[in-house]
Design goal:
The complex is a heterodimer. Chain A is α+β, with helices and mostly antiparallel strands. Chain A has two helices and three strands. Chain A has a three-stranded antiparallel β-sheet with strand order 2-1-3, covered by helices on one side. By secondary structure, chain B is an alpha/beta fold. Chain B has a single domain, classed as Class I glutamine amidotransferase (GATase) domain (Rossmann fold, 3-Layer(aba) Sandwich), CATH 3.40.50. In chain B, 23% of the residues lie in helices and 24% in strands. Chain B is built from five helices and eleven strands, in the order βαββαβαββββαβββα. In chain B, the strands form two sheets. In chain B, strands 2-1-3-4-11-10-9-6-7 form a nine-stranded mixed β-sheet, sandwiched between helices. In chain B, strands 5-8 form a two-stranded antiparallel ribbon. In chain B, strand 3, helix 2 and strand 4 form a beta-alpha-beta unit. In chain B, helix 1 packs across helix 5. Chain B is globular. Classes of the chains: A alpha+beta, B alpha/beta. Chains A and B meet through helix 1 and helix 2 of A and loops of B. Chain B: Its EC number is 6.3.5.3, 3.5.1.2. Chain B: Pathway: Purine metabolism; IMP biosynthesis via de novo pathway; 5-amino-1-(5-phospho-D-ribosyl)imidazole from N(2)-formyl-N(1)-(5-phospho-D-ribosyl)glycinamide: step 1/2. Chain B: It is found in: Cytoplasm. Chain B: It comes from Nitrobacter winogradskyi (strain ATCC 25391 / DSM 10237 / CIP 104748 / NCIMB 11846 / Nb-255). Chain B: It catalyses: N(2)-formyl-N(1)-(5-phospho-beta-D-ribosyl)glycinamide + L-glutamine + ATP + H2O = 2-formamido-N(1)-(5-O-phospho-beta-D-ribosyl)acetamidine + L-glutamate + ADP + phosphate + H(+); L-glutamine + H2O = L-glutamate + NH4(+).
């Protein structure tokens, strides 16, 4: 089974990388960009049933993939 | 002082740290591999050195913080043992929950590698007793992610409880945005835990301990630890 964990910075946390990318896009003339926040995507393959997979992914995100001081995460089982 | 230096894959400042500890304490530190599950008998001080553990993949220090040896370090710290984390070591201590907050990308995005001035905020702790309160010292920094951040309550507590021990400043000791090299909250360069036995700091005192290094301002930190342990013994 394939799954995806998306880790993003919480609202209000300064994201210097996102800001730099935002500036670069503006200087490249890409119009209409209001703001950019950078995050991370983990594509994960798992065995077992969907309920177990969701629990494992949540544990993975809580234990290592995200630092919940500054980051939020979202878990999706893609089937 | 019987010290132990943690060694993680990718770390590259462990020998600088060992050299400084040997020089100031007169004893050879133990080098402890990340896969160990215990610390050497009679360890007085555990040091998480700088370097780039696991290549800084994921988040700086995140993988090292989950290494087997860190359970032993947590137990050592909760028994009151002294723990020092420098640079990547500071990041590891934050990621492992031994210190609050996190080190984020430098606000101006650049990797910073030069000497900085630090104001020693108080001298009545094991990590600062080699200095006077308000003293300005010069030590090098070398980091891309040293921008200390925590929620407002944590920052308020750190300040209120006098847990900021080192702060970026000018040569004459002024603190402000122009001297805050990485954008850290409150110009924080080093903090201790609630109990005062775990210090994390971004600058490298171990690289200013001998005349040949051009400055010996970092020596006071290690000398203070030795003095503290001698008095406790």
């Amino acid at each position: 089974m394939k799954a995806r964990v998306t880790v993003t910075l919480k609202a209000g946390v300064l994201d210097p990388q996102g800001k730099a990318i935002e500036g670069a896009l503006k200087s490249l003339g890409v119009d209409g960009i209001a703001s950019v926040r950078q995050g991370k995507v983990f594509d994960i393959e798992l065995d077992g049933d969907k309920t177990k997979a969701e629990a494992a992914l949540k544990a993975a995100a809580d234990k290592l993939l995200a630092n919940t001081v500054i980051e939020n995460y979202r878990v999706e089982v893609l089937g | 002082m019987k010290s132990a230096v943690l060694v993680f894959p990718g770390i590259n400042r462990e020998r600088d740290m060992a050299r400084a500890l040997r020089l100031v304490s007169g004893r050879e530190p133990a080098m402890v591999w990340h896969a160990e599950t215990s610390l050497p008998e009679g360890t007085d001080l555990v040091v998480a050195p700088g370097g780039f553990s696991y290549g800084d993949y994921l988040r700086c220090g995140a993988i090292a913080a989950r290494a087997p040896v860190m359970d032993a370090v947590r137990a050592f710290a909760s028994d009151g043992g002294l723990v020092l984390g420098v640079c990547n070591g500071f990041q590891i201590l934050c990621e492992s929950g031994l210190l609050p907050g996190i080190l984020m990308r430098n606000a101006r995005l650049k990797f910073i590698c030069h000497d900085v001035h630090l104001r020693v905020e108080r001298s009545d702790t094991p990590f600062t007793r080699g200095y006077n309160a308000g003293q300005v010292i010069r030590v090098p920094v070398a980091h891309g992610e040293g921008n200390y951040a925590a929620d407002e309550d944590t920052i308020r507590r750190l300040e209120g409880e006098g847990r900021v021990l080192y702060r970026y400043c000018s040569a004459s000791g002024e603190v402000g945005d122009t001297h805050n090299i990485n954008g850290a909250a409150q110009s924080i360069a080093g903090i201790v835990n609630e109990r005062g036995n775990v210090l994390g700091m971004m600058p490298h005192p171990e690289n200013h301990v001998e005349d040949i290094m051009g400055c010996t301002d970092g020596r006071g930190l290690f000398a203070g630890l030795v003095a503290h342990l001698e008095r406790a013994a």
